[in-house]
Amino acid sequence: YDSGRDGYIDLMELKLMMEKLGAPQTHLGLKNMIKEVDEDFDGKLSFREFLLIFHKAAAGELEEDSGLMTLAKLSEIDVSIEGVKGAKNFFEAKAQALSSASKFEAEIKAEQDERKREEEERRNRRAAFRELKSAFSQ
């Protein structure tokens, strides 16, 4: 979910993550989620702070109706209840969902690259036209 590839999950990335997990949050709710585990007060989640969510959930330190508890519950599976096959199916489904999200992101990136290429071609054509125009106007 670190779309900025900076090693942190910021507010917008957390928003997207919660939406993809099917548990969208309000802007204020997202801010509170970050604030609850943000040890260095930088307004974003490091990998350590992200793992702290699950540590706090396991220790019972999160409020039951908080966004962080929702995140922890959506991302865990109890093998003793689901069994090994259930856990396998759960993680395969997660991997499939991530794969399809990656495919979607790849399509968006391809569209953006195509637009950049078309814009570059337009600039080159304009420059060539200006060059020819200047040759005739002298």
TrEMBL record:
InterPro entries: EF-hand-dom_pair (IPR011992), EF_hand_dom (IPR002048), EFHD1/2 (IPR040365). It holds the Pfam family EF-hand_7. It comes from the Eukaryota. SUPFAM superfamilies: EF-hand (SSF47473). Keywords: Calcium, Coiled coil, Metal-binding, Repeat. GO terms for molecular function: calcium ion binding; calcium ion sensor activity. GO terms for cellular component: mitochondrial inner membrane. Residues 94-128 form a coiled coil. Residues 1-24, 25-60 form the EF-hand domain. CDD domains: EFh (cd00051). This is EFHD1 protein. It comes from Nothocercus julius.
